[in-house]
Write a structure and sequence with these properties.
By secondary structure, this protein is α+β, with helices and mostly antiparallel strands. Helices cover 37% and strands 18% of the residues. The strands form three sheets. Strands 9-8-17-16-15-10-11-12 form an eight-stranded mixed sheet, sandwiched between helices. Helix 4 links the parallel strand 3 and strand 4. The mean pLDDT is 93.
């Protein structure tokens, strides 16, 4: 068993490319976003004349490797851009993959009940009118059908990101694959293009087989919901083998199934292992907890953190997260749903601050150069967008995957993570991340102490970006409170 941490796409992309190239019999991939035009970063593959992800997978398929690719689809009305990207990506791969290769573009099967469609009728009609005025060639087959029939609303997605080669080796984490996601340790690029993420390469046959089984179940569920295969006919995959994984290395999942009903919005929860695992890990903590998350909104997880802080008088808590959601930071979204989601996070930050006091450090990293004029900024620097999903407890146990600390990841969307009870790997991951964020300021200070992180963040906040050491800055709680607005009728799990 070997675990290798992959921090940022500068490590994640080449590792994924090499994993795909190493497949001999089978390669399965499930990603929220995977653009076939993504440039390869592995020198040895580029030297072979391969330039893009499509080139790589075409080579693998031509070699006789069985490929099953599941790309997430999105609501064609309210997330039209993501929906079109999904179809474009799936079509791009399907057009070049030969042999035993199948590409499925899969929405989650849950659809909002008819009363939700009635309540949102005005907005739906506006979006449909926009589609009608668009160039017909830009519409997907799904969007064209919407103009002629009923409009399904799809509030849930397949959010997982992983690849498995030969049921023996895999990469799992939070990183999707396109040029927007490519970044390195320096984060020296326009702020809207920064992207910090973490994945794990797991070389363990039992775990890889369990992840492959999960892929098969997701694939079959997608076919059962009528998801199209863009290059031929897709067949169901066998699920009769049940690999047993060690409690020290196990797959953690969130799975839900369609649930009809006139007022129904949420799917039926089938597997809620992420929520249970997070609460259990937090409950085990005796000394320190390190978290990286895109969102901090799920009240049961926040409840667990509050209980842990009350139970252990000197428990240290370090949380790395972006100052706001991506669409708020870079697209200036001030809609009610964005404000409601941020209100949940503001509530969480206030509760944790009250219990932990100076034992809490909430960090939002920023670039070490001034923000470009008119661009998003945080304390005069461009924000570094944190998209990772990591928890390390007491340097004994860690979990890395696709699940954010929000209701969607805990209960709605399809998610997958690796949980590992290996102290050497847990500590190494946390120390690598601390070194990345704190930089030269690290010195001999203990990175398990919230005080170390707060001091570094406050010191950076007091000087211009170009004089800062590392990327740590304080989480902007005050501006978050001003932006937040609760909309009580909305289900918290939706955010």
């Amino acid at each position: 068993m070997t675990l290798t941490s992959l921090i940022t796409a500068s490590e994640g992309f080449p590792a994924l490319e090499r994993l795909a190239a190493s497949a001999r019999e089978e390669l399965v991939l499930s990603f929220r976003i995977f653009d076939p035009r993504t440039k390869l970063r592995s020198p040895e593959l580029r030297e072979r004349g391969l330039e893009t992800s499509a080139d790589l997978l075409a080579m693998v398929a031509k070699r006789g490797v069985r490929i099953r690719m599941l790309l997430s689809d999105f609501d064609p009305i309210f997330t039209s851009d993501l929906h079109r990207l999904a179809w474009s990506s799936a079509s791009g791969f399907a057009s070049v993959l030969q042999g035993d290769a199948k590409v499925v573009c899969a929405p989650h099967g849950q659809m909002a009940g008819p009363l939700w469609r009635v309540m949102m009728r005005g907005r739906i009609m506006r979006m449909l009118n926009e589609l009608r005025s668009d160039e017909p060639t830009r519409l997907t087959p799904v969007q064209r059908s919407l103009l002629e029939g009923p409009v399904p609303l799809r509030p849930v997605t397949i959010h997982q990101k992983f690849a498995v080669a030969d049921s023996a080796r895999c990469i799992i984490g939070g990183l999707d694959v396109n040029e927007r996601r490519y970044d390195d340790f320096e984060h020296d690029q326009p702020a809207e293009e920064t992207w910090h993420d973490v994945s794990m390469q797991v070389d363990d046959a039992d775990f890889a087989a369990a992840l492959r089984l999960h892929f098969s179940e997701t694939w079959n569920a997608a076919l059962d919901c009528g998801s199209p295969c863009l290059n031929g006919t897709a067949e169901r995959m066998p699920t009769d083998v049940r690999p047993q994984t060690s409690p020290d290395l196990r797959l953690v999942r969130t799975v839900s199934s369609p649930c009809p009903g006139p007022l129904r919005l949420a799917p039926r929860a089938s597997v809620q292992e992420h929520e249970k695992a997070m609460i259990a890990l937090i409950g085990e903590a005796q000394h320190h907890i390190y978290i990286e998350t895109q969102f901090l909104r799920h009240r049961p997880v926040v409840d667990a953190l509050v209980r842990a802080g009350e139970r252990i008088a000197d428990l240290q808590l370090v949380i790395i997260l972006p100052p706001a959601a991506e669409r708020v930071l870079f697209n200036s979204d001030v809609g009610w749903d964005a404000r409601h989601g941020h209100a949940l996070q503001t509530e969480a930050a206030q509760r944790l601050g009250k219990v932990y006091g100076d034992r809490l450090a909430m960090i939002s990293p920023g670039q070490t150069r001034p923000a470009e004029e008119g661009a998003a900024d945080m304390l005069d620097a461009g924000p570094i967008y944190v998209h990772s999903k990591v928890i390390v407890v007491d340097d004994r146990v860690g979990m890395v995957g696709s699940a954010n600390l929000n209701g969607r990841s805990m209960r709605w969307d399809t998610e997958a993570s690796v949980l590992f009870r290996r102290p050497e790997d847990a500590k190494a991951l946390r120390e690598r991340l601390a070194s990345k964020w704190l930089g030269p300021r690290l010195g001999a200070q203990s990175t398990v102490l919230a005080k170390t992180w707060r001091q570094a963040a406050l010191a950076n906040a007091a000087v211009p970006p170009e004089e800062r050491e590392g990327f740590a800055l304080p989480y902007p709680s005050a501006s978050g409170r001003k932006f937040s607005r609760f909309v009580p009728v909305l289900p918290a799990d939706m955010f």
